[in-house]
Specification:
Length: about 325
């Protein structure tokens, strides 16, 4: 098993990527990790040398966070992200991970790795934390702003397969993001998708309202990229605002500071439960190879989580399972 890591993408690159690769190499000696990037930028972080299962692939360029995605992928053919994608395309790596420019990674997936036969629109599928600690796989959360009912059906099938292969779920519960739980609710897109889901080989549990997503009412949440991305940003914003208000209130007086000291362990557990680092690693499902997106601010712990998710998906034969599901369609 070979995993290519874009060592130059992300806020903490290349330090976070290198530290994660070295930890992963020690934890999984049967896996080869290929750090893709500028050798002169990587070398200072190789204290004591590299283990046998960690190698470096040279990439002279870097796609920056503010680069226009498609133009960058087409012009910076020697960038770490594109080189890693090309390795997946050519079979030199079984998967790639990048915490770099999200749009550019999507473009790399489509233009370099290629779309899987039978798939019309690949979907970005991150894990969201839930109160039961199981998490929910949500797709699409931003790869495509517009979708057809058939696209949502493909997301449901791919998401269900992912949870089976990567997380060992026998029958993942699939929900459709909507404005109400009733079957007749929603716009034309969700109404038509609802009918398709009812007749699909999935465990469809019906419509799911955004307020219930974190309660763990489903294992796979399907939506179009526009609605999904709005939901994601709203959840992130609400979580950040709540923690900000708590911090202000618990440091306002000496009494509240005393209470905060007593409650600190509990707040720590809450923060960990909602920490994206515990769920890092969103696959771009529907490509002819495994491409995984790490959060842009991923530290080494978050990158290690992404590596773990990638290994599990590869071990479970995710790509082969999706190809088998859509072959001939």
């Amino acid at each position: 098993m070979k995993i290519a890591i874009d060592a130059m993408g992300g806020d903490h690159a290349p330090k976070a990527q290198i530290e994660a690769a070295l930890q992963a190499a020690a934890q999984w000696p049967d896996t080869e990790f290929i750090l893709v990037g500028r050798p002169e930028a990587l070398q200072p972080h190789f204290v004591g040398g590299l283990p046998k299962n960690v190698t470096v692939a040279k990439a002279a360029e870097v796609i920056e966070a503010d680069d226009e995605p498609v133009r960058a992928v087409r012009r910076k053919t020697g960038s770490s992200m594109v080189v890693a994608g090309r390795m997946v395309k050519e079979g030199a790596a079984d998967a790639m991970i990048s915490a770099g420019n999200t749009g550019a990674l999507m473009a790399t997936g489509l233009l370099v790795v290629g779309r899987m036969p039978g798939i019309e629109r690949p979907g970005l599928a991150p894990m969201l934390p839930t109160l039961d600690d199981v998490g929910v796989l949500a797709l699409d959360l931003g790869a495509n702003m517009d979708a057809k009912p058939e696209h949502l059906l493909q997301y449901a099938l791919m998401g269900s397969l992912y949870r089976q292969k990567a997380h060992g779920m026998a029958q993942p519960r699939v929900g459709l993001l909507n404005v109400g739980t009733e079957a007749a609710k929603g716009n034309e897109l969700t109404k038509e998708a609802f009918e398709l889901f009812e007749n699909a080989p999935i465990r469809f549990v019906g419509n799911v309202e955004a307020r219930d997503v974190l309660d763990g009412v489903c294992d796979v949440l399907v939506c179009d990229g526009f609605s999904g991305n709005i939901m994601l940003k709203a959840i992130e914003g609400a979580a950040g605002a709540i923690f900000k208000v708590l911090r202000q209130e618990l440091t306002s007086t000496w009494k509240s500071k005393l209470a905060a000291a007593i409650l600190k362990p509990g707040f720590g557990r809450v923060r960990k439960k909602m920490d994206y680092n515990e769920y890092n690693g969103a696959p771009l499902l529907g490509l002819n190879g495994l491409v995984v997106k790490g959060h842009g601010s991923s530290d080494s712990r978050a990158m290690l989580t992404a590596i773990k998710q990638t290994r599990t998906a590869l071990s479970g034969g995710l790509i082969e399972a999706i190809k088998g599901e859509f072959s001939g369609k």
